[in-house]
C-alpha cells in the first residue's frame, strides 16, 4: 500500500508573479492511501493539483513537506538508485502518446530500453518478451516492433505507451488524462484495455481526469477523490460519491455533466458563484472553495474544514456538507 501523509508541494514563483507572493502551493497537506488492485479516479478542474499529485507518487518530483510510504516503510528518492527502484513499483501512462514516443526510433528500440536498463531480459529473450507484451495490450507484436510511431494510429500509440509502462512489471499504474487527446470513438476501447490489463496484473490504478463520466467508467467498483486547489474535498466509493455528493464543489461538477436525452436521475443543480479558479493567498486559512460556494457562511472564510467521514467510507471536507435532493430529467 502506498500512503501519503500531510503531503505538500510548493513551487517557487519567478518574474512578475513573485512580486505578490514567493511560492505557489499546488498540493496542500494531502492524505491518501492506495492499495494494489484498487482503482481510484482523481477528479477536478485543470489547475487543482491532480498532475502534481501524480508526479509526486511517481517519484518525478519530491514533496516539499509530508511523507510517502510503501507498506509502512518510508519512501526516499534522494538518489538515482532509489528512483530506479521506485520506477519498478510505480509507472505512468502519459497524457500525450504523440509527444512521449521518439519519432526517429522504431517501436523495438523504444520498448527494449526498459527491459535492458532494469535488467529484466537478456538480449536472447528480448524479442519474445516484447512481442508477448504487445499482444497483451492488443497489438500484433511482429507487425508493430519494426514500425515508427507515425506509422501507428492514435489508439495503437496509446496502447504502446501502456505496454511500455507495463514492461517493468509495476505494482501501481498512474494514467494522467490518458484518453483526453483521443477521438471519442477510441476512448472506450483504450479505457477497457487499461482496466483489463490492470485487473490481469492486480495493479493499483490511479486515473487522473476532469470528466466524471470517465471516472465512473474506470473506477465503478473503486473510489473517487475530488480535488480542489491542492486539497481532497471529497473521497469515497464511486457510486456513493456520484449518487450522494455532499461537497458543493463536487455537486457543481456533477451538475455540469451533460445529460443524455431520456429519464435520468441526478442531484439538484448547484451553480458556483464564479466559474474561475480562485487564487488563494498563502496566509488564507479558510475553506478553499468558500469564495465560489453558494452556501458559504462567515466561518467558512475563517476555518478550513477537515476531511472527515460522514457515512461509511464517505469523507468530505465541508462545514455544511449535505446531500441535495435527486431530480429526474425528463
UniProtKB/TrEMBL annotation:
The species this protein was found in: Alicyclobacillus fodiniaquatilis
Transmembrane segments: none
Coiled coil: none
Protein name, per record: ABC transporter ATP-binding protein
One GO molecular-function entry: ATP binding
Highest taxon, organism lineage: Bacteria
Upper taxonomic lineage: Bacteria, Bacillati, Bacillota, Bacilli, Bacillales
Keywords assigned by UniProt, alphabetized: ATP-binding, Nucleotide-binding, Transport
SUPFAM superfamilies per UniProt: P-loop containing nucleoside triphosphate hydrolases
Family named by the database record: Belongs to the ABC transporter superfamily.
Occurrences of domain ABC transporter (ranges): 2-254
InterPro entries reported in the protein's UniProt record: AAA+_ATPase, ABC_transp_ATP-bind, ABC_transporter-like_ATP-bd, ABC_transporter-like_CS, Oligopep_ABC_C, P-loop_NTPase
